[in-house]
Every structure is written in structure tokens, then in C-alpha cells.
Amino acid sequence: MQRVNTEFMKAATRGLTLLFASGDSGAGCWSASGRHQFRPSFPASSPYVTTVGGTSFQNPFQVTNEIVDYISGGGFSNVFPRPSYQEEAVAQFLSSSPHLPPSSYFNASGRAYPDVAALSDGYWVVSNHVPIPWVSGTSASTPVFGGILSLINEHRLLSGHPPLGFLNPRLYQQHGAGLFDVNHGCHESCLDEEVQGQGFCSGPGWDPVTGWGTPNFPALLKTLINP
Asked: Which of 32, 36, 100, 199 has the most CB atoms around its CB within 10 Å?
């Protein structure tokens, strides 16, 4: 894990943008030690990648507000410490969230993820000429966010600017500008009496379920077009 993370760091210093899905197991759960703990995933928890969570709609058959997709991965690394670029945002979440799980379930000083989110529910895809309905997961939301960043990079290149590169410091410095803040819903975790299957919950600003939120392309382009 450390070796792979070192390679991610090299990529970040070269100005590459690395996106990874936050996973589809909520906060995760691990009880091999005899006690429940959340189980963060990797490479989603690397401090050198931009991690994408997932959202759904309150009613998939109507134009409704986005809510948390309950499978959307998120949490705090047990290996990598919290990077300085997210110190303020994560501290704000930990001090203000009314729905924190027991402190023994997660490492509050670890790298927190995801950083952003996108719709991860209800896609229709085609495989071998066969349509497959209702495909869901953060492996769907991540390429959506990646496609949006590609469009923004195209605009930057046409304007004489370099590609975005490692995005996280800028995302956190701008406090989620250009993103829709998703603040309704929680993701899943351990099925036990203390948390009753609930992990972290979304709220105003950054949270470990949907990050800073989902992309508003015109606003995000305006925010990221300049160096």
C-alpha cells in the first residue's frame, strides 16, 4: 500500500489528476478482532488521489433533489494521516456533525474521503449490444466526474493554461465552489446495536459521504478555468 501510494505521489507531482471510486460498501465493517470498526478502502483513501462518492435521487422517476446513495463509500484512513489541504474542512465536519458514529469505529485523524461525488444510481449501459438497466455504483459516478474534468481541461488548454493536475488542494481551498452541496442521507455500515447499520451522514459543506458535492458544470468550469 505504501509503495503504491508513493507512485500516486509521484503522479501528483507531475501534474496528473488521478480519480478513484470511493467504493460501494458505505463505511464498511470489520469485526475479525471481535469488535466492530469501519473499514476504509484503498486506493480511495490515498491522500494523492481525488476520490468520487455517489448520490441518488429521492424519486428516480421525477426531477428531485440529490441524496446520498447509501452504498457510497467513505470514511477515514487507518494508514494515512489527514493531509493539510483538508484539515479545516474535516475538522469542521467532526465538530459540527450531529450524527457521528462512536469514536472507536474510525480514525478521526486519518485521511478523509471522498472529496467529491456524482450520480451513481440508475444508469443504463450497453454490453455486447445488450442494454443493461439500473446500473449503479461509484464505478459509474467516477467516470462521470472524470469526463467533466476532461471538458474543463479542454477549455483550459484552449485558453493557454495547463491541465488541472492534482486537484485536491484547489478543491478544498475553494470550499467546494462549483459543486452542489448534498446534505441529506447517510451511508451504510455495520449492522450492530451501536450504529444500527448507519455510517456517516451528509451535511453542509464537506462530509465523508459525498465530499464537497456533485458537479455543476457551468459553475465548476468558471471556478477551474483559470490557473
From this structure: 199
Fold of 1-224: Rossmann fold (3.40.50)
Which of 37, 106, 21 has its CA nearest to residue 69? 21
The model's pTM is 0.93
Helices (H), the chain: 2-13, 87-96, 138-158, 168-173, 217-224
Per the annotation, where are the binding residues for Ca(2+)? 181-182, 205, 207
User: How do residues 130-167 score in pLDDT, each as one tens digit?
Assistant: 998 888 999 999 999 999 999 999 999 999 999 999 99
Q: Please give the DSSP secondary-structure letter assigned to residue 138.
A: H
Q: For 34-80, write each residue's pLDDT tens digit.
A: 678 899 999 999 999 999 999 998 776 666 688 999 999 999 999 99
- Residue 212 C-alpha cell reads as 464537497
Q: CA geometry: angle at 51 spanning 49 and 57, to 5°?
A: 165
CA 183 – CA 165 distance, rounded (Å): 28
Residue ranges per domain, the chain? 1-224
Residue closest to 23 by CA, chosen among 113, 122, 131, 128: 113
Q: Give the chain's end-to-end CA distance (angstroms, integer).
A: 32
Compute φ and ψ for 28, nearest 5 degrees: 75, 170
Q: Residues at the annotated binding site?
A: 181-182, 205, 207
Rounded CA gap, 52 and 24, in Å?
11
CA distances from 111 to 16, 50, 191, 225 (A): 20, 12, 24, 27
